[in-house]
Every structure is written in C-alpha cells, then in structure tokens.
TrEMBL record:
Family: Belongs to the NapB family.
Gene Ontology process terms (BP): anaerobic respiration
Name used for this protein in its record: Periplasmic nitrate reductase, electron transfer subunit
Species in which this protein is naturally found: Vibrio ishigakensis
Subcellular location: Periplasm
A Gene Ontology cellular-component term: periplasmic space
GO molecular function, one term: metal ion binding
Pfam families linked: NapB
Keyword set includes Electron transport: yes
Lineage: Bacteria, Pseudomonadati, Pseudomonadota, Gammaproteobacteria, Vibrionales
InterPro entries: Multihaem_cyt_sf, NapB
Length: 55
C-alpha cells in the first residue's frame, strides 16, 4: 500500500521479548507520533534550553 514500515522496536514488549505481532503498548500511535501541520500553537511556548539558562 506504500505505507512506511513500522520500526522493529514496535514488536518488543516491556520485558524486551520479541513478539510476532505489534506490542499492545504500541497500538495508540498518537501517544508518540503527532500530525505535523503549519498551525498556530494553542498555548504559548516559553521553553528555554539548558544552554541558554547557563549564560
């Protein structure tokens, strides 16, 4: 279908056992993967890197 293959890490459970199917903890893709869009942020981001705080 042209979809990108999921990582082999998605077939490993919490005990590092390799599974035949996708690990149940990997079913909810939007927990880690988010859509990318050129949209205005819903909240202001005031993030400052550690390096900028050292100065």
């Amino acid at each position: 279908m042209g979809a990108t293959k999921i990582s082999v890490t998605h077939y490993v459970n919490r005990e590092d056992a390799v599974l035949a199917d996708v690990s149940p903890r990997r079913y909810f893709c939007l927990q880690c993967h988010v859509p990318q869009a050129n949209a205005k942020p819903l909240v202001e981001n005031s993030f400052e890197s550690v390096d900028s705080l050292k100065k």
